[in-house]
Design a protein that fits this description.
Layout lengths: L10 H13 L2 H8 L3 H15 L4 E4 L2 E4 L1 H25 L5 E8 H6 L5 H7 L3 E8 L2 H5 L5 E6 L7 E4 L4 E5 L2 H4 L13 E4 L6 H7 L10 E4 L2 H9 L4 E5 L20 E2 L3 E6 L7 H14 L1
Parallel strand pairs: 3-4, 3-5, 8-9, 8-10
Antiparallel strand pairs: 1-2, 5-12, 6-12, 7-10, 7-11
Helix pairs in contact: 1-2, 1-3, 1-4, 2-3
Length: 294
């Protein structure tokens, strides 16, 4: 029988390969893993020698995954995630733990609502207490260890991790989409705009050279969740982030009539003050959230 390739494979090799493959940088992987760049390179070389396959190629001063590396990366990521989740279930002292999270209402409704059951299936002993917020002032009095905010990602005293790609595109019901053969056809439908956002319909229309439609009557609301709900009920066309429209009841009722999108200054971010003093339950939720989005 041929030897198993996983025999004597080192966990550190896999962790290092995963970080380097995800970041496509030995330097960034080294910073993430608190290792030197040379140590990262050595760990990758040891894994390549063990597998008898090249996983990276160097192009000028950058690295890219080989075909084998691209195929191997998701397998390693899934394996590490399962190992982490399994170990947490067995060893984490989290009996009846409660996590309090200040979370932007739109992210809670459009992303968390359809996925928290996965977290609960892994950690049934952890309860999540969500406190819905929309505005920056709502967070100023927060005592929660974790927050999910909408903004630029720059908040004094907080570490932040961007959760979604900041690109907006139109969404509407399938019935309305049949009437939208080209962007100019939007003049026949109400536009749903979100207050307090740096980029919205004005920016999208300017990008599409449709400034004549900027004077079109609109409906305004203070949350992306409200805009999506109104669009799902057939009241117009909203702008929404693709990653918030992948799962859930509301997402299933809307389609994107056009592929054209705009990049926004703002996005949704996971924020916290001090990871070192964070409770075990909050740390586990943070890691689960970031791994589910990776």
């Amino acid at each position: 029988m041929d030897k198993l390739l996983t025999n004597n494979i080192q966990l550190n090799w896999l962790r290092t390969f995963e970080a380097a493959g995800r970041r496509l940088s030995f330097t960034l992987a080294a910073e993430e893993l608190n290792m030197s760049q040379s140590a990262v390179s050595q760990q990758v070389q040891l894994l390549e020698h063990h597998l008898d396959q090249r996983l990276f190629v160097r192009i000028n001063r950058t690295i890219q995954l080989t075909d084998s590396g691209r195929a191997f990366l998701p397998l390693v990521q899934d394996s590490l995630r399962q190992l982490n989740n399994g170990a947490a279930q067995i060893f984490a002292p989290l009996n009846d733990a409660v996590i309090e999270i200040n979370v932007n209402t739109a992210f809670s409704v459009l992303w968390l609502a359809s996925r928290l059951q996965r977290f609960n299936a892994i950690y049934p002993q952890i309860s999540i207490r969500q406190l819905g917020t929309n505005w920056a002032t709502d967070f100023d009095i927060s005592t929660a260890e974790l927050e999910i905010r909408y903004g630029t990602g720059q908040w004094s005293g907080l570490e932040s991790h961007r959760l979604i790609d900041p690109r907006l595109r139109p969404y509407c019901t399938a019935e309305y989409a049949k009437r939208l053969r080209r962007p100019e056809d939007l003049e026949t439908l109400p536009l749903l705009d979100v207050l307090g956002t740096a980029q919205g319909w004005d920016s999208w229309l300017e990008t599409m050279d449709l400034e004549t439609l900027k004077s079109q009557p609109r409906q305004y609301m203070d949350s992306h969740a409200t805009a999506v709900s109104m669009a799902a009920n057939g009241f117009g066309v909203c702008l929404m982030y693709d990653e918030l429209m992948q799962e859930g009841v509301l997402a299933s009722q809307l389609v994107a009539p056009f592929m054209d999108s705009i990049c926004t200054d703002n996005s949704y971010y996971l924020c916290y003050k001090d990871e070192g003093s964070m409770s075990s339950a909050s740390q586990i939720f943070k890691n689960w959230l970031l791994s589910d989005l990776s």
